Amino acid sequence: MTSQWSAPSAPGPVRATVPVPGSKSITNRVLVLAALADEPSTVHAPLRSRDTVLMAEALASLGAEIADGPDGSWLVRPGALRGPVDVDCGLAGTVMRFLPPAAALADGEIRFDGDPHARARPMSTVLGALRGLGADVTGDALPFTLHGKGSLPGGEVTIDASGSSQFVSGLLLSGARYDDGVTVRHVGKPVPSLPHIDMTVDVLRSAGVTVETEQDVWRVLPGPIAGREWHVEPDLSNATVFLAAAAITGGEVTIPGWPSHTTQAGDAVRTILERMGCTVTLSSNGLTVRGPDRLSGVDIDLHDESELTPTVCALAALADGPSRIRGVAHIRGHETDRIAALVNEINGLGGAATETEDGLTIDPKPLTSGVWKAYADHRMATAGAIIGLVVPGVSVDDIGSTTKTIPDFPGMWTRMLAKKDG
Ligand SMILES: O=C(O)C1=C[C@@H](OP(=O)(O)O)[C@@H](O)[C@H](O)C1
Ligand SMILES: C=C(OP(=O)(O)O)C(=O)O
User: Fold this and answer.
1) From 130's CA, which of 54, 143, 148, 421 has a CA 20 to 30 Å away?
2) Which helix (H) or strand (E) holds 86?
3) What positions does the entry give for phosphoenolpyruvate binding (predicted)?
């Protein structure tokens, strides 16, 4: 689904209010919990994009009933999980890491595969852990097959989760359904994207599951999972792309419905943009960002909010001074090797970016027109759109990749640019 797209230039300072769809991370956690619950659930304001539709379709083929409710909600009725089933993970980390621990509870054979690059994303930690918990799995990366027996003993596993927080989240989400629950112990370099594990613990507790945590150890006790009404927050990481438009054009963008308390890693954009010189205000209207005359470079550790790296790098490439992004070595295993991709694309437009062991440095230089490659990665595509706002003649080779987490990014972007003051 490649689709070359000429990135529109900003006609002036961008001034708009941009409602953004629901959080991918919350939607896909809640779908798994709703499918494993004791009673039906309603998921209000879910994200409906490729990653979440793949999750819903996979859970439905495993035995859950997922129907459309009023106002775009999803009604989820749990059912006995069974194979044979073929699961398409697309390029979704949340599907490939969260579903196998649930599918291990099914009766029958469950085969997993995904997009070409999905086969390169790290999976062996999750599959090794499932074997340790009693599952029968063939393969160590996509494609792989689970030979389900209808239940899983569970217990304690030690893993190295320095490659992805999703290894931990996936095991915890289904752990209450294992005979002995699950205890996940991490040994290795620090776990990245920790707010995402906090989010997992938070949704589990909201479903009445008992979770105990200590440093690098998470324990989920066996027990019921409550069905309930879930309300999905707007996706704050996707929102950063629209806020970036204000930051680089000296404009003002408001995202309505920004939560005052959240476990979403994207909330960190508030401090990041302030450090780069923006004025950031959180009020009952939402989050408003006003861009400065000149954006400052930043030296920043994004280990906890690594999915913001492409947006931050796009801003850094347009800033007034040098930037250094640290703590994100593991994003080489995201949708693409994001460090290499960002360096290639920034330099391809005449910039000066350099890979480091755990991130990159960017020295702003005047950028020129050219094709920005997305590598099938939604956040690479949106980073190209940000740069294209102020660098004439930029096109993004595969804007369709944004459907991974935003159903209509080109439409939202055009509407944002068409808005007048106020
Ligand atoms: O659990 C989740 O929903 C996510 C966890 C993070 O993954 P990593 O820990 O691999 O960075 C994040 O980057 C990804 O976008 C979503
Ligand atoms: C890393 C990301 O996605 P995934 O859930 O596929 O890992 C992301 O959205 O930035």
Assistant:
1) 54
2) strand 85-88
3) 24, 93, 121, 166, 338, 379, 404
Contact 413, 385 (CB under 8 A): yes
Question: Within 10 Å of residue 344's Cβ, how many Cβ atoms?
Answer: 16
Q: 43 in helix, strand or coil?
A: strand
Residues with Cβ within 6 A of ligand 2? 92-94, 307, 334-335, 379, 405
- pLDDT tens over the chain, length 422 residues: 456 899 999 999 999 999 999 999 999 999 999 999 999 999 999 999 999 999 999 999 999 999 999 999 999 999 999 999 999 999 999 999 999 999 999 999 999 999 999 999 999 999 999 999 999 999 999 999 999 999 999 999 999 999 999 999 999 999 999 999 999 999 999 999 999 999 999 999 999 999 999 999 999 999 999 999 999 999 999 999 999 999 999 999 999 999 999 999 999 999 999 999 999 999 999 999 999 999 999 999 999 999 999 999 999 999 999 999 999 999 999 999 999 999 999 999 999 999 999 999 999 899 999 999 999 999 999 999 999 999 999 999 999 999 999 999 999 999 999 985 43
Query: Exposure pattern of 382-410 as b/e (b: 16+ CB <10 Å)?
Result: bbbbbbbbebeebebbbbbbbbbbbeebb
Nearest CA to ligand 1 atom 12: 307
Q: 252, 307, 335, 345: which one is catalytic?
A: 307
**What structural domains does the chain harbor?**
5-21+234-418 (3.65.10.10), 24-221 (3.65.10.10)
In this structure, the residue with its CA closest to atom 6 of ligand 1 is: 193
Residue 196 CA to ligand 2 center (angstroms) comes to: 11
125 lines ligand 1 (CB under 6 A): no
| Paired residues of 309 in beta bridges | none
